[in-house]
Amino acid sequence: MLAITKASLRSIFRSPSAVIFSIAFPLIFILVFGFLSSGGNINVTVAMDHRSDTLNPVYAAIKHIPGFNFLEGDSTKIKSELSKGRLTALISIQKTNNVNTPYTINLTSSEAANPQNIQLVKSILNAVISKLNQENFVNTPTMAVVNNNVQQVPGRIYRTIDFVLPGQLGFSLLSAGVFGVAFLFFNLRQQLVLKRFYATPIRRLYIILGEALSRVLFQLITAIIIIGIGHFAFKFTLVHGWITFASIMVLSFIALILFMGFGFIVSGVAKNESSIPPFANLITLPQFLLAGTFFSIDNFPTWMQPFCRILPLTHFNNAMRNISFEGASLLSVWPDISFLLIWIVVVYGIAFKIFKWE
User: Fold this and answer.
1) 41 Cβ neighbours under 8 A, 6+ residues apart
2) Dihedral sign for Cα atoms in the order 170, 330, 43, 343
3) How much is the pLDDT for 16?
4) CB 204 within 8 A of CB 287
5) Residue 164 in this model has a pLDDT that exceeds 60
């Protein structure tokens, strides 16, 4: 019995999938969500109205709040960022004639901003005022008050689906590209189908392209279904209608080509079928968790965010959200697309070196 136990335990530790799924993945989840909970400061983007009274302690205290990212720029830029939802609120501090309440704080936002973030800004401002009252203005009822009536500028209504759907589409494309291609070409190689193809007059490039094209077409159909259900059932925003939809499909095609390259790499390095999931998950899992798929990367600690921005899925998610909700064109999101193209060159360079026909 002890001999069997020893041999079985040894075989478990020699199985990459057992080690990865039992030990590594739980640790990864613990670390990621631990960082989320201990990431420290909240982060909301705000701007200060240039007409604000800046010679008061409220202004000085607000400017030093770690959770506020202050956006600088002229009124045209501020209004544009408000309408797109990138700016949560415009803060205006005005002096009053009321001795009991020397200052009033007015907020300007838009329907494109997340309502929870607007409420968060108001709560932070009230907490700052309360602290100032306790420290320096004991004899004053309150040195400032936040106006509960938030002025709204025109903007598109921000819905949860506008954040969730791009991440889920990226999730689907990455999963299909890596797992689908890896299992497909590993099985074709293992069953000697690729070897038989290679023995025919068909060029090797055409063999790869034929199999890859079928995957591309299938996943683009999947993308159409996901976007269609999101738009018609849950009011997912497509700012310019069919033009926005076409831009999304082009972006999805580029991303899928990249993700399939990862699948070619996995199929080349995998020694057996059971080793495919661990290798594939080493590529996909960090991107699922750290690339803004389920939550914004701003929630992570500052030192981790540069790593998040290296991941290709991060750039797909950013470009997708900018195109669908903000109405950006493919030319406008060219920095994200160029990053994906660089990844394509690197990934297919590696895949070409390690791809096997037998």
Assistant:
1) 66, 67
2) positive
3) 63
4) no
5) yes
Amino acid at 103: Y
258's CB contacts (< 8 A; 6+ apart) are: 177, 312, 340, 343, 344, 347
The dihedrals phi and psi of 238, each to the nearest 5 degrees, come to -120, 95
Of the candidates 126, 129, 120, 105, the one whose C-alpha atom is nearest the C-alpha of residue 57 is 129
Does pLDDT of 37 surpass 60?
A: no
Give the pLDDT confidence score for residue 80 in this predicted structure: 79
Put simply, whether the predicted model's pTM sits higher than 0.70 gets the answer: yes
Instruction: Give the pLDDT confidence score for residue 62 in this predicted structure.
Output: 82
**Fold classification of 44-153 (topology level):** D-Maltodextrin-Binding Protein; domain 2 (3.40.190)
Neighbours of 207 (CB within 10 A): 17
- Please give, one letter per residue, the 3-state secondary structure of the chain: CHHHHHHHHHHHHCCHHHHHHHHHHHHHHHHHHHHHHHCCCCCEEEEECCCCCCCCHHHHHHHCCCCEEECCCCHHHHHHHHHHCCCCEEEEEEECCCCCCCEEEEEEEECCCCHHHHHHHHHHHHHHHHHHHHHHCCCCCCCEEECCCCEEECCCCCCHHHHHHHHHHHHHHHHHHHHHHHHHHHHHHHCCHHHHHHHCCCCHHHHHHHHHHHHHHHHHHHHHHHHHHHHHHHCCCCCCCHHHHHHHHHHHHHHHHHHHHHHHHHHHHCCCHHHHHHHHHHHHHHHHHHCCCCCCHHHCCCCCHHHHHHCHHHHHHHHHHHHHCCCCCCCCCHHHHHHHHHHHHHHHHHHHHHCCCC
Q: How many angstroms from the chain centroid is the CA of residue 34?
A: 18
Which tokens hold the place of 293? Answer: 């798929």
Every domain range in the chain assigned CATH 3.40.190: 44-153
| pLDDT at residue 224 is higher than 60 | yes
What the block records as the tokens of 267 is: 């199929």
More confident residue, 10 or 253: 253
* Whole-angstrom distance, CA of residue 51 vs CA of residue 305: 34
pLDDT of 143 over the 80 cut: no
Q: Is the pLDDT of residue 324 over 80?
A: yes
